[in-house]
Amino acid sequence: MHIYQAGPLFSEAEILWHRGFKQKLTSAGHEVMWPGDFFTQQEIDAWGADAPKHIMNKDRAAIDACDVVVALLDGAQVDDGTAWEIGYAYAKGKPVVGIRTDFRNAGDTTHGRVNTMIEGSCVGIARDAAGVLKLLSQIR
Fold first, then answer.
1. Which carries the bigger pLDDT value, residue 75 or residue 69?
2. Residues 58, 68 contacting (CB under 8 angstroms)
3. Which residue from 140, 39, 24, 1 is spatially nearest to 72, judged by alpha carbons?
4. How would CATH label the architecture of 2-139?
5. What distances in angstroms separate CA 9 from CA 13, 37, 40, 81, 96, one per listed residue?
6. Residue 78 in contact with residue 118, Cβ under 8 Å?
7. Mean pLDDT along residues 52-72
8. CA distance 9 to 7
9. For site-directed labelling of 8, which of 21, 28, 63, 97 has its Cα 20 to 30 A away?
10. What angle do CA 48, 6, 118 make, to 5 degrees?
11. Taking phi first (over 0 means left), then psi (-120 to 50 degrees means alpha), and beta for anything else, what does residue 29 get?
């Protein structure tokens, strides 16, 4: 399965988590596209003010090319870019699997753990990598 791995990449902790999670998905036989692998910091710096457009276009193209989006939903609110990726994938008819390792509730939850619109866009939300792999096996 071709997976687009979505989630924030703004801290060393987030980057390290994503690298480890990507390894778990690839070890399970999946092909993973992760924005952390798309560009170098030098490329981003060279684009200057055009960097956001380049990044968004590459991420959008990768979502278009994937079978499913797996999105990290940790934090007090789902990351803005991750929320956009989830909405875009949902609008394109791509299944979205969430992973929320954070035990706190977040957003404007009524019945769940994250913002209602995010939760409604996901085919399921797992607590760990094993749960994500189980949800992915149900999509095939």
1. 69
2. no
3. 24
4. 3-Layer(aba) Sandwich (3.40)
5. 9, 11, 13, 10, 19
6. yes
7. 97
8. 7
9. 28
10. 115
11. left
